[in-house]
Structure formats: structure tokens, C-alpha cells
Amino acid sequence: MNFKFKKGLLSVVVGGTLILGSLPITASAKEPTTQVIPQGTGSAVLDQANYFDDVDPSTKVTVDIVMKVQNQAELQRYINSTVTPGSRNYHKYLNVSQFKAKYAPNPSEVNRVTRYLKSFGIQSQVYKDNLVITATGTVAQFNKAFSIELKHAKFHGKSFRATKKSPRAPKDVAQNILAILGLSDYSSFTTNIAKRPVDIKESAEQGPLNLDPSDLIEHYHLQPLYDKGATGKGQTIGIVTLADFNPEDAYSFWKQEGIETKPHRIKVNEVDGGSGYDGYDETTLDVEQSGALAPDANINVYVGPNTDPGFVDAFAQAINENKAQQLSVSWGLSEPTIDYYVDQQMESPEYAEVFNELFMQAAAQGISMFAAAGDAGAYDATRSLGTYQLSVDNPADSPYITAAGGTTLPWEVTTSSGVKVQVNHERAWGWDYLYPFFDSLGLNTPSGWLANYFVGGGGGFSTQFDTPDYQKGVRGVNTYTGVKQWQANADFSSVEKIEPEIVKGKGSGRNLPDLSMNADPYSGYKIYTSDPGNPGSNGEMSAIGGTSIVAPQLSGISALINSDNHNRVGFWNPQIYRFAQEKDSPFDPLNATGSANDNLFYTGTKGTIYNQATGLGIPDVAALAKKFARY
């Protein structure tokens, strides 16, 4: 699903996580040296756009000024120590004030920025972590403060606001600023939700699966936690999203599924004024699936507008409130898309680091974070760029998020056209097992390939982040076995289907995903939706999939484990990689080799612990909870 540009102005963030920065500025007789500040949209868009009019000088604009994390290497060491048994910091997480004192710019540096803004009449509010400053003023005020000219522009059919000149500020103001987001509002994101593109008409009784939460509970062995009394009580699940939804749909879903839940458990936080309903089924499934697994947990939904500052602020509010012990997100972009924007100077190289700083803060605070790994198999860029290089998804590529991959559960059917579809064992999700069926429908064409053939659980190697320490030395990391069945041309703009062959190789960078569960829409889960903004109207159950289901399910599982252990287990990744290397690993690595277990390229390797199709594999949740409780 494409994340469409939303016209209009952002509204200022309000709430208890912000403080007002309003100290007076002192004049200097000497003209200060100025310094360029990176902004979210770079010169390729800004230079090539058609500028046709000045933005009304009285128009109000809200931007994010993101400050640089301090002592980053020390922060990395501290995060590792919170999840290392025997460390004096084990499970000793920072609160937001402690994080700010240790790792954020000091108050004088932040105040220097807010004083500078105030001298031009721009109001500023600072998130509690001192990393994000939300500034609101008129176009005329921002033009003067940053020596820019905001104009109306068009580029590739999009209308947006932009400045062709790079923003500048005095060096003592600019030196601790990582980036400014929102002077231009040119942006695009996608959700990792997947639906069945073709209804399968059956000539046999079996068919695609339509699963309930009880099926997940049985298959991934959650019931022992419920038997011990774990319900998610005392926990809060956080969901960062870019689309509004009907909270009433979630209560209807739980009632129809026979799940007794805590009443009034959903709190919707409209960040920067919230968003519209484009992508509302994504938010709906996040709430319904996570809440079904931890029925007594609260659910805080952070709905930001579909802009760069909106996405940043949704994370910033959730992390700075520090109420959610686990947080999931199912929106993102492929790494090649970000690389393309950076190479073409359509995006700042600092873009990914803006989010990564916040994810490091979350890890230091003991927040377990989960992100969908993508739904285009090993070819994530097909969703956003329409190109065919091996690639992975951001922000799941961050070393400080648990990347949620996808599998397909066993099912079978003989279609009315006589094609037998059969999955005998849980496998990596890749729709190559459906290729004969799609071929019978005449979809074996380039347009049919892009829409139907390149679908599966995201996985592979990041080009933006190095291999994290917790992955180093794990059997299967940075080596791979693949099923090569597509041959791309030199610039990855087209492919041809070839006879499948097994290949082996080495990779580098962060390996994705970290673990996997069922995500295939043809073995998918039910969700309940009604008309957007009109709860109860045309309400219906439907089956849906995507790694965007796995991320919130893991968040619900995290709440269940935390309530069972009466402790915040914190950042999962270093811990689960350690567990996976122990003799009684709580993961089945799904390491069979071949086209019956691939994500359109990567497959398993016998004897390994990790593979890039399903990560560490599928969890036995009860066994995983025991591992977390053991230390």
C-alpha cells in the first residue's frame, strides 16, 4: 500500500513530554560565522523542481530540529550492558531524564537553538530527551532565521513546499544540529501489509487459512504463559503508525473472538494533529493482533501525519513518554529507495540516523522494539522503486529494532483450474510456491511478476548498518544459501525468470530478519474492519497477512512475557541471539535448503543457527519466556 503525500500544514505537538524553550537572546556586535544545516530533502528535488510561487509569508509552518546524540560509543556500550547477565547495569534501564543527562546535548546548547529561534519570533518546544525541538512559526520567520526562501514547487507530479537554498545558522547554533525535517514536506512511505491478490476457487475442501488468535497461541506455544496467569497486566503496548483507525473495531474483534479484554484500554495520541485514514487497516490489525495476545495490557497508539516530521514525532512522543514497555512499527522504505534519494540529493544522508538515535534511546530505556521486515521477499525495492536488486527494509534494518520476518503455515488446495497448491511444513514465506497457480491465470508477464511474484517475508543484508556485535560469530550470519530463480539486468530495472539453481555466497552488514512467524495472507489471520471514520458501518471479517502482522504480535508476546516475569526484558536482540546458540534453543531455525523454504532468494543451510529468509527461525514462546526469566 502506498503512503501518499498529505498536503497541508503540520500542527505543533503538545503534551506532557514537551517543555517550552523561551530564554531571551543576547545581541552580538560581531556578525557570527554561519554553517549549513542538513535538511530532509536535498538538492536534486530542490534544484529540479518547478518553483512557481512564494509561499504566503504569514503561513504557519512546523519543523523538527533534531540534535546530535552525544557520547554515542558509550551509549552503545551501556545498551549492551543492560542485557548482559553479570553486568552491573543488567536490567538497569535509564529514564528519560537520565538519558538526557548522559547522551543528549546539554541544556545550554539546546537553549542556544531555542533562543536563536525566538529572536525571529519562532516558538519552540523541546522533547524531554533534548534530541528533538519542534519549532512553529511563519514562513517569513523561517526564511529570515535560516536565510532561505520557501516556495511552492512541483516535482514528479507532487506539489509541496520547499527551499532551494540550504538552511544556514550561526556556527554555535548549527554545530549540534543533526538535521532539520519539515522545511520541505516531500516524503513517501509504505506499509508492510499484504492481502490475497487472487481468490482461490477450490475443487477440494481444503483452502487458504483464516486463523484466529487461538491458532497462533497453540502453534507458537503461548498457552503455558496463560496457565501461569500471565495476561499482560501492568504492561503497555505502543504502536507507531501513520494512519487513523476506528478503535471500536478492535473491541468488536476481541468480542467476536471470545477474548475478554481490559475495558477502555486503547488510548489514541494524535501526534502533530494526527493523520487521515489511508492505511487504516494497518493500524487496525496492529491493535487487534497485539491486544488479542495480551488481553489486560493497555494499548497506546501514536498516530502521526504522513510526513518525515510526523514519523519522527510519533516515535519521539512514544519514547519520551516511556509508558510502553514494547513498541511496534509496520511502516517503512526500502534501503535502495533511501539510497536513491540520497544519491540524487532528494534526501539527506542524516535521514536514517535521525530515527536510529531515537531507537538507541528506546533500547537504553528498556523498550523492546519490533519492526516489520517487509513483504517483497529478498527484493524489497520492488515495492517502492520497482527495481529488482536484493534489498531490505528500513527501519527494520536498525540494529536496535527486532526485525520481524514471515513464514507460511502448512495448507493445501486443488484449484478449480486443476493446479495443486501444497505446503507441507512451515516454511519461509515466498510466493514461488504459488507460481504454477499464477502461471495458470496468465500472470506470467512483467506486470504480473511485479504485482504477484515478488511477495514474501523480507530478509537479506543491510547496506546502511554494519553487522552488530550480537550477530557476529553466529553460524549462518554473513554467509548464505540462495535459490536463484530471477536474473536482473545491469541496472536492476527488469528481470527474467530462469531455471532455479542453488547458489552460495557471503554478505556483510546487519542481517535481517531476527526471527519470524506466520505472515502469508494465504495462511493469514482474521481482522475486523468497518468503514473508516464510521465504526460499525459495513463491518466485516477478512483474512490478511504481511510482516506488519508479526511485528505487533511480537509486541503482544513481549507484554505477555514481561507480565509473566514481572520485569522489563528490554532490548531483545542480544539476548535472543545468545539463547539461539544454547543447546536448548527456543527457536526452530527452519534451515532446510531449497525452493520449499525460501523468501524468493535466501533459503536455509543445514547446521546453521541463522538464515536470511527467517532469521533465527520460529519461536517456542513458552521456552523463550523461560530463557528471559532464567537470568
UniProtKB/TrEMBL annotation:
Q: Which cofactor does it need?
A: Ca(2+)
Q: What keywords appear on the UniProt entry?
A: Calcium, Hydrolase, Metal-binding, Protease, Serine protease, Signal, Zymogen
Q: Where is the Peptidase S53 domain?
A: 210-631
**A UniProt-annotated Pfam family:** Peptidase_S8
UniProt xrefs under CDD domains: Peptidases_S53, Pro-peptidase_S53
- What is the superkingdom listed in this entry's lineage? Bacteria
Q: Which GO terms describe its biological process?
A: proteolysis
Which region is the signal sequence?
1-29
Q: Which GO terms describe its molecular function?
A: metal ion binding; serine-type endopeptidase activity; tripeptidyl-peptidase activity
Recorded protein name is Aspartyl protease
Provenance organism:
Pullulanibacillus pueri
